[in-house]
Amino acid sequence: MDILKDSKLLLVSLFIILLAEAIGQIKISLVMVFPMLYSMLMGGIISFPKFKILNEKNMAHATSIMSVALVILIAKLSTSVGASWEKIIQAGGALVLQEVGHFIGTIMLGLPLAIMLGMGREAVGATYSVGREPNIAIIEAKYGLSSPEGRGVMAMYICGTLYGAVWMGILASVIAGLDILSPLALAMGAGVGSGSMLAAAVAPLLELYPDQAADIQAFSSSANLMSSVLGLYIYIFFSLPFASYLYNKLKRKRATASADTE
């Protein structure tokens, strides 16, 4: 009940919503910017401690409200699964294979780049997954959060929380605007196991493809559920061991190359 009595937070939230909706959609070159995107940016600026608009208690209440709102959003998206069940079954193989993209992008691209930038074992924790809550739990159980791997996954979690939804919204908008992929493929790609990232990525797809809104919601929520359930086992039994193996191999190769140069 304390949350409902937090008038400052409710008024600030209402102001952001009204301002974002008043601005509406803005197209900048290939990027279509939607109200949700700059409402997140405005919220981030307003909550900056230096401005002293919101205190820690207000932000704690905002976190609680966000958690409830995301549950409602996921429930709403999930209700569209039944209507598109046959299409989802037909795309079953694609839904499973899209999980592969989660480790190809983070490990195969991110890990070598992290090593090039000078990261140590932190690179394993940072790149073996998209760095959400279940991924933190996996690292905590295997290495502990005080380990280099723990610091890596926590750094990625913080970055994902601050910038993940903004990045997903922009990326989905740009790729959808290029019209090079099916909107259903983009919907599946939006389901990375994060409710906020899912919402940010699906918003531009629903605006650009209103005639396929039901299917987009169904495929994105199915992919998100699969990422949360099946993805957990992929992270435990494949992604984390493979990231550790690749890290050791790349570090040895780099050390050998440095020794040869000297």
UniProtKB/TrEMBL annotation:
Question: Please, which domain of life does this record's source organism belong to?
Answer: Bacteria
Q: Does the keyword Glycosyltransferase apply?
A: no
Q: Which keywords annotate this record?
A: Membrane, Transmembrane, Transmembrane helix
| Residue runs in coiled coils | none
Instruction: Please give the start and end residues of each transmembrane region.
Output: 59-79, 100-119, 154-178, 185-206, 226-247
Q: Please report a single Pfam family linked to this protein.
A: DUF3100
This one is known as DUF3100 domain-containing protein
